[in-house]
Amino acid sequence: MRKPLPLHTKIFIGLAVGVMAGLLCNAFFADEPALDWAIKNLISPFGQIFLRLIFMAVLPLIFSALALGVAELGDIRRLGRIGVKTFFYTIIVTSISVLLGITLVNMVRPGVGLSEDDRTALMSTITTRPAQAAVEKAAEAKSIVQTLLDLIPKNPLADAAGAFDETYRGGGILALMFFSLFVGIALALARSERTEVFERWLQGLYDIVMRIIAIAMKLAPYGVAALVFSVTARLGVDVIVLLGKYITVVLIGLALHMFGVYSLILKYVVRVNPLKFFGRIEEVILTAFSTSSSNVTLPTALRVTEEKLGVPRTISNFVLTLGSTANQNGTALYEGVTVLFLAQFFGIDLTITQQATVVLASVLAGIGTAGVPGGSLPVIVLVLVSVGVPGEGIGIILGVDRLLDMCRTVLNVTGDITAAMYVTRSEGQQLKLE
Fold first, then answer.
1. Residue 207 has what pLDDT?
2. In sequence order, what are the residues at sequence separation of 6 or more whose Cβ sits closer than 8 angstroms to the Cβ of residue 368?
3. Do residues 327 and 310 touch, judged by C-beta distance below 8 A?
4. Residue 431 lies in a domain
5. Domain membership of residue 105 as a residue range
6. Nearest CA among 312, 324, 322 for reference residue 427
7. Which of 51, 65, 123, 275 could bond 131 through an S-S bridge, CB–CB 3.0 to 4.6 Å?
């Protein structure tokens, strides 16, 4: 029997079919009313079905994943120094990754280049809301003080209900993230037989939501083909050029963080040879790249970290297991770059306050993003909406997400191992690379 094609291959095929069919229709039928009717009434709605299946899983995924991710940091009273060091390492290095990505986007501006007519046509294709409404919302910048206050929700349920409402002026999804963060902290500090029931409920909710996303991803090849066709049939080659610039910026950012930031940490903080380090984790890198999953790579990472790097099992088990969800530098960088790229794509100029919101949301999301293929897509939708960019814009980059997912997973897993090396060194223990 023939082995079925893996999902990422099907998505690549869907991308190729959508691009080729869209470019052909743009070349020969661009002015035909029938093409416009087919996109609006047949092809684009099919793509929207896939997007809506992802959307409906967004809020429960963020609440369960973020609360569990923080709770799994462990009881500070029990884990002591290791827990605190891992937490601060994660926050600092993830923040560096997001700032690096956002700086690159502001320098290169890969999403700039569409004419106003093309942008309006694109908006009518992939979103049900008028383009002007999104632009006006982005212009309604709140003060820094008010933005910070809105992070603390008066009513988390109200913020969850208003997360996708353009007219909602509360904290929205960021406030829900803040609430989830505190639920996780309280859960870690109040461990008892009674709280174990709630933690198991959270894990059950997380498992259910991940199953929903897995079901939705089965439609991804067809949804990608429909979404990409809708865009390329409207805009032709222009959108392909912009996507190429976007991919380049993401890959440059990931490479700089991987071989720049991590190498500096290894050389001057951990005090080991970065080249030897990368050579010894080659098996982990290949596994992460081929599977696009931090969770699937975890067993290999645990074995290699202990056997080839000399990290004690007590440290590697804690840091790497937590890191498969909570220390996702590559995903955080990717999310920041994607949000700013799509904002530029739609002609929405984000203020300094709004870009700070993107940084904060991406750092927090790096703690709660699922360590599975496509796990960051729902989070990107949330961050997009929080700064006034249409959430449906995710369809523009969906076709190339798999390639970038493979690359950022490598960065995520390498970051987990680097964190374990740092904690081991800070505890005064020996490493095999010395």
1. 83
2. 62, 65, 66, 67, 69, 177, 180, 325, 326, 379
3. no
4. no
5. 7-426
6. 312
7. 123
